[in-house]
Amino acid sequence: MKWRLASLLLVFVVWQFAAMATQSHLLPSPAATLARIAQEMRSGALPFNLAMTLARVAAAFVIAMSLGTAIGIAMGRNQVIDRLADPWLILLLNLPALVVIVLFYIWIGLNEVAAVGAVAVNKLPNAIVAMREGARALEPHYDELARVYRMPLTARLRHVLAPQLAPYFAASARSGLSLVWKIVLVVELLGRPNGIGFQMNVAFQLFDIALLFAYALPFVAVMLLIEFILVQPYERRVSAWRHRAA
Amino acid sequence: MLLEIAITGKSYPAPNGGSAPVLGKIAFGIRPGEIAAIVGPSGCGKSTLMRLAAGLDQDFDGRIALDPAARTGIAFQEPRLLPWRSAGQNLRIAAPAATDAELDDLCARFDIGDHLNHFPAALSLGLARRFSLARAFAVKPDLLMLDEPFASLDSAMRRRCCDAVADLVDARRLAGLIISHDIEAAVRLADVVYVFSARPACIIAQQEIAMPRRSRTDSAIREIMAQIEALG
Ligand SMILES: Nc1ncnc2c1ncn2[C@@H]1O[C@H](COP(=O)(O)OP(=O)(O)OP(=O)(O)O)[C@@H](O)[C@H]1O
Ligand SMILES: [Mg+2]
Q1: Surrounding residues of ion ligand 2, Cβ less than 5 A
Q2: Is the pLDDT of residue B220 over 90?
Q3: Which one-letter DSSP state was computed for residue B214?
Q4: Chain A residues with CB inside 8 Å of B55's CB?
Q5: Helix (H, G, I), strand (E, B) or coil at B38
Q6: For chain A, which residues score pLDDT lower than 70?
Q7: Of all protein residues, whose CA lies closest to atom 22 belonging to ligand 1?
Q8: Are A233 and A221 in contact (CB under 8 A)?
Q9: Residue B209 clears pLDDT 50, i.e. is over it
Q10: What's the CA gap between A120 and A127, in Å, rounded?
Q11: Residue A51 half-sphere exposure, CB side, CA atoms within 13 Å?
């Protein structure tokens, strides 16, 4: 944690020097950016747009991970399903994000369903691939154990399946979050009247770099926070039994 | 009969594409309250037979009838504890209906009570095996299946666990299939010992042991072992 904070601090130092050296409105200083953030906080615009974006991230993430987990496990466990769904999966994996977004907006309309759906569909194939790997790697020995000991389905899910899939889920959740919050901004920029992505577009139109920074920075900060206080501890927790004796 | 085995053959796919026979003709049954032991050379197919008996592998010729009402307590050749749950949780998960007192009693018998909070990776192989033995009893089985239950235990601990199994089997009048390299353990525990040939395995000899388990003295056991070795 100490080193992480130091490295973060270094970013600000470099930024400060760069701003001082260039003296251009194209690179506002950290102080100017903070002032702008405070202003946007007071007006309520920043919390509102940030909340909209986070809500879209959360919705798309939950949809993609739950669908991806279900489909991935089905494909990993069943050869027929795997063969049937595999071409679709490859298609989805290679479909450019922009194509999905534009098509969703055109077919479904410029609304929240299309926005969240487009983000979820972009994340979905990665989640499927990761969970399919996990399902293929399930150790049959533990399945035999569960059968001979006649473990009820809930116990099997909880004590036999979930712990084996958890590392794959964690890895997929982590790469998934970073993908989702990149795409969510594009989706907002193209077809939503609010959110961080929308504000980015406004800042771009006005060539207002301080505004751009004022929205980008808190967004990145929230993402880092989620990574450090949710995703990484979860990853550590699900693999704790590998390293820890008691 | 609790378990009726009438196998006419079992083979595994061979690396060269053909099939390699592992078990030949094997027929025997286990009555309620009867312990059968199987001894035989390494690699002859003993563990394979146990997997078939437990219903884990349906791909064989012949017939195996396991009383569907019978609960099986199994200890595989490797301890097979769930590595992501503590040793104590492993007992609990397998036997959710067991009371704390029952589990404590089993832990005392197999001397594992000090290690309940350890993850399996932190257990010695011998400890893990004792946990897998305790787990087999924790589910209050009607039929035991133990594959090399005392491997990787030192001789004092092997004796202690062997006695623990004998006590539990007698107290609960259990039936079981015990597989062992170690003829002595087989003779201490079993009512009947089947000697398997090398692969493809079939029964080449069998020895009934009428003497009650707990009255088998060391000299009596040596005598029976000598008889069995003479048969095989
Ligand atoms: N899944 C499998 N596929 C192919 N061959 C197998 C498989 N499992 C076991 N075998 C082979 O079948 C034979 C019998 O194996 P098994 O594990 O039943 O022997 P065992 O009598 O239990 O030996 P040990 O006393 O060493 O435990 C061995 O030669 C083994 O190599
Ligand atoms: Mg074996």
Answers
A1: B 47, 77
A2: no
A3: G
A4: 147-148
A5: strand
A6: 243-246
A7: B47
A8: no
A9: yes
A10: 10
A11: 6
Cβ of A147 under 8 Å from any chain B Cβ? yes
Q: pLDDT per residue over B143-190, tens digit each?
A: 999 999 998 899 899 999 999 999 999 999 999 999 998 889 999 999
The residue extents of the domains of chain A are 53-245
Chain B residues whose beta carbon lies within 8 Å of the beta carbon of residue A159: 82, 85, 93
Fold of A53-245: MetI-like fold (1.10.3720)
- pLDDT > 90: percent of chain B: 69
- What's the CA dihedral at A43, A44, A46, A49 to 10 degrees? -130
Could you give the CA distance from residue B185 to residue A65 in angstroms, rounded to a whole number? 52
Average pLDDT over residues B206-223: 87
**pLDDT for residue A244:** 57
Least Cα separation, residue B74 to chain A (angstroms): 7
Q: Could you tell me the maximum CA-CA distance found in chain B, to the nearest angstrom?
A: 53
DSSP letter string over B92-118?
HHH-TTS-HHHHHHHHHHHT-GGGTTS
| pTM (predicted TM-score) | 0.83
- C-alpha B182 to ligand 2 mean position (Å): 12
d(C-alpha B176, C-alpha B21), whole Å: 26
> Does the pLDDT at position B35 exceed 90?
yes
- CB of A155 within 8 Å of a chain B CB? The answer is yes
